[in-house]
Design goal:
With 387 residues, the chain is α/β, with parallel strands linked by helices. The strands form three sheets. The chain has an eight-stranded parallel beta sheet with strand order 4-11-10-9-8-7-6-5. A two-stranded antiparallel sheet has the order 1-12. The protein has a two-stranded antiparallel ribbon with strand order 2-3. Helix 5 packs parallel to helix 16, helix 6 packs parallel to helix 7 and helix 13 runs parallel beside helix 14.
Amino acid sequence: MSRDRRYQNVDDFRRAACRRLPKIFADYIEGGAFSETTLARNRMGFDRYALSQRVLQDLAPQPDLSATYLGRRWSLPFFPGPIGFLGLYRRDGDLLVGLAAKAAGVPFGLSTFSIKGIASLAPQLGDNLAFQLYLDRDPAVNESYLAACREAGVETIFLTVDTAITSVRERDNRNGFRAVKHITPGLAWQFAKRPRWSLDLLRNGFPGVELVEGRPEFGRGALAQASALSSRLDKHLTWDKVKALRDLWPGRLVIKGVSDPRDGEIARQSGVDGVVLSNHGGRQLDHGHATISQVAAMRAALGPGCELLVDSGFRRGSDVVKALALGADAVMMGRPFAWAVAAEGAWGTGRLFSLLAAEIGITLQLMGLNSVDQLKAAPAGDYITGG
């Protein structure tokens, strides 16, 4: 069977990625907090909404999927959000997803926890590169991150605000992720059972997190650095620190991890350019709301002048259409791109973009629409019901 036939949706990539990856990394991508109830609710939340089909409309040969967000016009209304340790799932995974995003005409969000760093990616990704900032407890470390962004010409920073308290992810606890700091016999056995992954990733030695390489306080190698980065997160993150960062950073500042509309209103008042409605993919508060269920209320809280992006649980083009119909400006996706690059590298990420774009286009035209703009200009409730 050809690869095009084998991969028809995100779940096809997920299954292939889990077959290829060692369990410690497959579970890290897949898992959620405690009972994983929020993780499940993120998917079930989409079923509460129905789209309206309209017929006998004057349809264009190709729908216009471009959308305006992060201050620019982009080719698609979705893009890869920041994914921790992406370069552990396939060598140069950060670069491969970033290049696919650039080819698709959308931004790429690089995590503080990425393997490749800003300095390596900026020359190849240019102004498609955005950076997700986790505030360290040491202001000097944070300034080094900002300095790297300034030097590289990064325009947008996503400040993650929902991880000052790290939740329990039971899969990671069982596997020892963030606890083991070097390759143990158990890990070596996991790696040996995944020879394709091992030959790809380990041929030049186990990688490290480039952004903190050379800093002895973070340790050596990605396993030790994962533990250090997590333990050093600023536990006293407040709105005052958001405002202080707003004063320090001249570019676009978007705060990621806002899930309650009351916090959305405070965010708007704090002077940020936008928010990402997110529950961290179900990895923080267990028994929380599905993010799709909060889009309309968050849009109302932010008003028209503050951009609204959303993530957590998106797997289909129709999911993206629902978020746009409810008031989001764009959608960020994490796990789908981790699975795609882990399963099939550069080809997989390109294929994922094509599949999602096709589904969005077909969904829009079955709704009688020729563009994302046409959907977003429609009155609330014209094309979506439920909630």
